[in-house]
Specification:
CATH topology: Rossmann fold
Radius of gyration: 20 Å
Order of helices and strands: HHEEHEHHEEHHEEEHEHEH
Strand content: 15-25%
Number of strands: 10
Number of domains: 1
CATH class: Alpha Beta
Length: about 290
């Protein structure tokens, strides 16, 4: 019996080694989880160390490029990722990856001109892309010049088809970066907005409760098709939403709609990380008392 168990354990170990050899991107993520992460049913929580995020992002994309000719990254909107973009613009990170093989897309956009300081593209361009060795044809901002946002959404969906294939049932990004708002929204999928319930389209217009109200956004079917989503969340105003998200099993916030089948990493600022860690510790003590 002991011999059989040992043989089974050795076989499982060899299978794990083979899987890690065939999936170098998985090695990157496992190393992050083991060294810095804390598990939760919502995913893995990690302290928001921007240099660690930048290192892990570059390593992950590099690993993907050992398996395929190009890779795709969907960028987050809002102000939070600016520090990450500034790091990626430095010579250190520019030289660590063949950026000419990376294609950049956006998870959402404010419906303003690209040169408007409120534009998600404008932030990424001024902080990073204007200095990055990424070919212009690899940068795919959401169009905002159409008089009708519906036409813009259809145009971006066509651009996604051009990259992922005309017959692709859904685009599968190698990595999706998402922020989270005070109300728990992700991309531009806001509580109560019809865009949150879209099940077939890839890109739709949406309405934000704050200006600029008109937005474009990827839909939940697209976000849930990604193998991995990294949430970048900072700001004490988001504490209530984070507490709700990580304490309620049945949570109605849009951020809770990312499927458990997606590998979810939550990079949380110090104060938010402390909140979730405290919730985790309390839950663990409760389980121990019941046992």
């Amino acid at each position: 019996m002991e011999t059989q168990r040992a043989e089974n354990a050795d076989e499982q170990f060899q299978q794990l080694l083979q899987m890690l050899e065939e999936a170098p991107d998985l090695r990157v993520v496992l190393r992050l989880i083991i060294r810095h992460g804390q598990r939760h049913p919502r995913g893995t929580i990690l302290p928001l160390d921007w240099q660690l995020v930048a290192d892990a992002l570059v390593e992950l994309l590099e690993a993907r490029l050992t398996q395929q000719p190009t890779c795709s990254l969907a960028l987050s909107g809002g102000k939070t990722p600016e520090t990450l973009y500034l790091l990626l613009a430095t010579r250190h990170y520019q030289s660590r990856l063949d950026w000419s093989r990376v294609h950049l897309f956006w998870g959402d956009e404010r419906y303003v001109p690209h040169e408007d300081p409120r534009s998600n593209y404008f932030l990424a361009y001024t902080a990073w892309l204007s200095k990055a060795p990424i070919p212009r044809e690899n940068i795919h901002p959401m169009p905002t010049h159409y008089p009708n946002p519906e036409d813009a959404a259809r145009a971006y969906e066509a651009e996604l088809h051009a990259y992922f294939g005309a017959e692709a049932p859904v685009p599968v990004f190698d990595l999706v970066l998402l922020g989270m708002g005070d109300d728990g929204h992700i991309a531009s999928l806001f509580p109560g907005d019809p865009a949150l319930e879209e099940t077939t389209r890839w890109v739709v217009p949406s309405r934000a409760p704050v200006a600029p109200h008109q937005r474009l956004t990827l839909t939940l079917p697209v976000l849930n098709a990604a193998p991995r989503v990294w949430f970048l969340v900072a700001g004490d105003a988001k504490r209530a939403a984070i507490e709700q998200l990580f304490s309620e099993t049945e949570c109605a916030l849009p951020a809770a709609r990312i499927s458990p089948s997606v590998e979810r990493l939550w990079w949380l600022s110090d104060s938010l990380y402390a909140v979730v860690k405290s919730l985790n510790d309390k839950a663990s003590r409760g389980v121990q008392r019941r046992e």
